[in-house]
Amino acid sequence: MEYLLQKTVLPLDRDPDILPLYVDPETWSTIDEEPVRISSRAQLGNILGRDRARILPGRRVSFGTYFNAFPASYWQHWTTVRSVTLRVRTEGKVTVLVYRSNGGGVRQRIETFEVDGVSEVSLPIILNQYSDGGWIWFDVVADDATAQFTGAEWVTEDEPARAGKASLGITTYNKPEYCVETLANLADSPDVLELVDRIFVVDQGTQLVADRPEYPKLEELLGDQLQVLRQPNLGGSGGFARAMSETLARPESDFVQLLDDDVRVEPESIRRSIVFGRFARTPMLVGGHMFDLLDRPKLHAWAEVVDNTPFMWRNLFQEKMPHDFSTQNLRQSPLLHMRMDAEYNGWWMCLIPVAAIREVGLSLPAFIKWDDAEFCLRAGEAGFPIVSMPGVALWHVSWLGKDDAIDWQAYFHARNRLVAALLHSRADRGGTLIRHSRRVDLKHLMMMQYYPVELRLRALRDVLSGPDHMWRNLATAMPAAREVAKRFPETVIHKDIDGLLRARRGRQVFSRLKRNVFDSPTGLRLRTFTASVLLSHWFHSPRPENVAQPEVEFGKGDANWWRLPLYDSALVSAADGSGKNIYTRDRATFRRMLTETVRLHWRLQRSWPRLSRQYRRALGDLTSHDAWLAYFERESAQRGA
Question: pTM to 2 decimals?
Answer without folding.
Answer: 0.93
